[in-house]
Every structure is written in C-alpha cells, then in structure tokens.
Amino acid sequence: MTVTADTYHVPVLLEESIDGLAIQPDGLYADMTFGGGGHSSEILRRLGRKGHLYGFDQDADAERNIPADERFTFVRSNFRYVKQWMRYYGVEQLDGILADLGVSSHHLDDAGRGFSFRFDAPLDMRMNKRAGTTAADVVNDYSEQQLADVFYLYGELKQARRLAATIVKARSPQPIATTGDLLQALGIDTNGTQWKKDMARLFQALRIEVNHEMEALKEMLAGATTLLKPGGRLAVITYHSLEDRLVKNMMKAGNTEGRVNRDFFGRSDAPFRAVNSRVIVPSDEEQQRNPRSRSAKLRIAERI
C-alpha cells in the first residue's frame, strides 16, 4: 500500500490516473486535489528538469506534505479558482490536469473534523477550516424545506423530508452540535446495517453543501477546458453519481448539463475526446487494500 505523509491519504488509482495524463517531461501540470501528495509525487517523478506542477488544496493540513522540489508550487486555494491562479502565475496553457474528488482518508480519520459518524465530534465538515459555514450551521439554521432539498439532491435520500422534519423538531430544545447529537436526534438504531448506508449519504449531503462542492467542480471543469492545450489530458476520479455525472457530461459535451452542441453540418463541437472508452475502476486487489477506492471511477479525456 502506498502511504504518504504519515498516512495522511492513500492515493486511489495512482498508476492508472498518472498513466492517463501521458506526462510530457517538460510539461506544465496541475493537481487539483494535492492532499497527501501521493498523485503529485508520481507526477513529479515523471517530470523532467524543466517541467512544473501546481498543487491545489484549500486545507491548511495539506501544507505539511509540500515536497521540497523547485518544480512544485503549492496553491492554498479551492480548485474552482484554477483559471485565476494560472493567470496569476503567468501560465496560459497546461499539458494536464488531475483531480481526485471527494473526501480524503485524512478527513475521515481525523475525529475532530466531523466528516465521519464513526466519531462523536463537532459537526464541522469544512475542507477549509477558515471558511464560515459549518455542518452544524446547516443542521440548525436551514429551514425544513432547505434541509430536505440538501438531503434529496446531494444524498439522494428518498426519506429526505422525514429526516429534515425529525431534525427540525429535535433542534428546537437545544442546537445539534456534534455528530453524536445528530445520530441521537434521528433515533438511529446502530444494531442494524442499513443505517450506515443512510448516514453515509446524509453526511455526504451535508459535506457537499458545506463546501459547495458541485458549484466548485463545475467551475474547475470549465477552467480546465479553457486551460488545457490541444492534446492536453484531463483525468478525474469520482466517488458518487452526482460528481461523476458532471465530469462525464463535460468530457462528452463540453458542458456539465450534457447538452451536445452541433455546427451547421451536424458535427459535435465538444472540446474533448475520451481516452478510455470505458470508465476505469480499481482492481480487486486495490479495493481490498484501500476500501475507499471501492466506489472510485476514473475518466480521462484529451483536449481537441
């Protein structure tokens, strides 16, 4: 198992994603989700002396993993601003962009961050701890309708309305402050098995809302489309259907809605060509080594 920065994060689909970028030794690349630096380290290993890599991460914890390499620039920012930051560094075009989406193993294993219902911790869930809104703010301040929408849209929970109503009723005596408070408010019976799947979806929904993940992904994908040079590669690892749909649509149609635009002759003007005809998933061996990888999907496209 490849473990980086004291088990900060185990990179998923490492070889497959970096192979998919078709690294040019003197090329310019961006890792949208630096994290523990596992993917970045492999990119740097394949770069030549004149190549350069920009690593994005909004989490201050990731800074402990910055490599001592003059070919690497760390950008402490949300990847939604990739276009603006590349302009700041004087970069007009990139040869490749990699994004490993979703929550890292570091976030899930850090009991104090509130990303996992395995620990009784403050309901935080902010990727950027300097940001304002927390999961506790969402749970306690959103209306019943707003909560139901979040649970349905981002957690795809059929019982979204019932969950929202239960939370609104439970928070009236006193605020729901911790993950334990939330489980207790929902009356979760931890002896069964279905509750884990439902809570995983609910926590996913809260995390997406807190970090504005869908909006950020749309902006990043739009920025990647304009930044990649012809022949440049975009490799994205997704973990749930919501983000995978956006990535698939962008690579197929050039927009996150999946709307195919055609010219006068009926030819698609999509800016990408799929590199892998079928989505790439982790091997059975990797799924056994790293359970987080079991829901991962890798899509790779080339800028036309």
What's the short version?
This protein has 304 residues and is of the alpha/beta class. It has twelve helices and seven strands.
Main sheet: strands, sense, barrel:
7 strands, mixed
> Count the strands?
7
Strand content: 5-15%
Number of helices: 12
Low-confidence stretches: 1-6
* pLDDT averaged over residues: 92
The residue fraction in helices comes out at 25-40%
Identify the overall geometry. globular
- Order of SSEs: HEHEEHEHHHHHHHEHEHE
Describe this structure in words.
The chain has 304 residues and is an alpha/beta fold. A seven-stranded mixed sheet has the order 3-2-1-4-5-7-6, sandwiched between helices. Helix 2 links the parallel strand 1 and strand 2. The protein is globular. The N terminus is likely disordered.
